[in-house]
Design goal:
The protein is α+β, with helices and mostly antiparallel strands and 416 residues long. It has helices at 4-11, 18-23, 142-145, 162-168, 173-189, 229-232, 304-314, 331-348, 378-388, 397-415; strands spanning 28-32, 41-45, 48-54, 60-64, 77-80, 83-86, 92-93, 99-101, 116-117, 119-122, 125-128, 150-158, 203-211, 214-221, 235-238, 242-247, 250-260, 263-272, 287-289. The chain has 2 domains: 31-128, Rieske Iron-sulfur Protein (3-layer Sandwich), CATH 2.102.10.10; 142-415, Naphthalene 1,2-dioxygenase Alpha Subunit, Chain A, domain 1 (Alpha-Beta Complex), CATH 3.90.380. The protein contains 10 helices and 19 strands. An 8-stranded mixed beta sheet has the order 13-14-15-16-17-18-12-19. A 4-stranded antiparallel beta sheet has the order 2-3-4-9, with no helix packed on it. A 4-stranded antiparallel beta sheet has the order 5-6-7-8, with no helix packed on it. A hairpin with a 2-residue loop joins β10 (119-122) and β11 (125-128). The chain is globular, with a radius of gyration of 23 Å. The protein binds FE2/S2 (inorganic) cluster and fe (ii) ion. Residues 168, 174-175, 178-179, 304, 308 line the site of fe (ii) ion (FE2).
Length: 416
Amino acid sequence: MLSVEENERLTRVGPGTPTGELLRRYWMPIATSAEIGSRPVKKRLMCEDLIVFRDGNGKVGVVDRQCAHRRADLSVAICEKSGIRCGYHGWLYSHDGQCIEQPAESRLNPQARIKAYPAEELGGLVFAYMGPKPAPLLPRFDLYVWDNVLRDIGHAMVDCNWLQAMENSVDPHHVQWLHGHLLNYWLSTGGSTEQTRLFTRKNVKIGFDPFEYGIIKRRVLEGRTEVDDDWKIGHPVVFPITLLVGGAGIHQLQIRVPIDDTNTWHIWYNVYRAEGARPAKQTVIPSYEVPLFDAKGERIVDFIDGQDVAVWAGQGPIADRSKEMLASSDVGIVMLRRMHKEQLERIEAGLDPIGTVRDPALNRCIELPIEHNKLGETSMFRAELFKHQAIRHSPIVAEINAMFDAAERSNLVTAK
Ligand code: FES
Ligand SMILES: [Fe+2]
């Protein structure tokens, strides 16, 4: 349980709030690369209204939504070689927000500038850094930089505070119920004879270990042991907004980007990696919206992520943690909150928070731990994900399956 004040301190993300200032120490995805073409795009990030644009040289920029002159909306603007030009009277801004041309003025006013943030692209996403300078490096996590893989990016807007999703990520017991028994209940009461058995197994043991980027989660399922990958390797929550899950060649970052206090842009960043496969390099990483509501406006809950989103949003726009009753199985949530509070103290003391990367030598490719044999059921796990996970909407499912099938055939041939 948290006091009302503590709950505010850990959840709110606007400028000047404690957690808003903490999250601003991390690079945040603000758009997919594919959606930033030749026109500027409106975005909102941590309660700030912004514009993402691509200049004539292909470099992305992130600036304030409003022009310094008379507050025109810079989504009505022209992307030029050196920056973005307001469509109202032509003031031109460079990437750092400095106004460099005022066509109707005889002399340029050096005071004219707008807010601007450093922006970079990596792995098909555009990231912005909204914190104090010098900016840390944008961490090059393995999923963003691997070669010889296929990628796609699913995304959706979720109608609640980002922290509800993150607390779910350190709560392994929900899997058995929400994605197992509840799904089976819905299937049978909906007239289906189908039942899932992958997610209904009980955790007989769960564990959490802090590591340099966050928390590693571990579990032992009924009938299995600590020798299995689920315990021995586990998978991480990358503080503050990311979960890595996967196995069986499917690797997924679930990134919970705070749009504001009560809206979260959820990204499913998927990387498909088959041993020995050499798929053609993707020039554009396809992105797609994951539907969360049906035509009647009801939440879609026949897949894992729809179930997760339904319970997060059901906790309220910002869950009232002053009314919760934590139990011993919530040990992961307790650890995450402790880590969060420690990071608030670190930045108040002028230190970098956990996971800050400043050494280029360490940033060529940051490998994150992940189980190879997820839940002890490799091929079944892959098939279940394509049926019951956001990736079922991927526009390249056929290509992905073809890559895995070809790799399996060639591995069989090699093994003979
Ligand atoms: S409002 Fe942008 S140039 Fe005038
Ligand atoms: Fe879940």
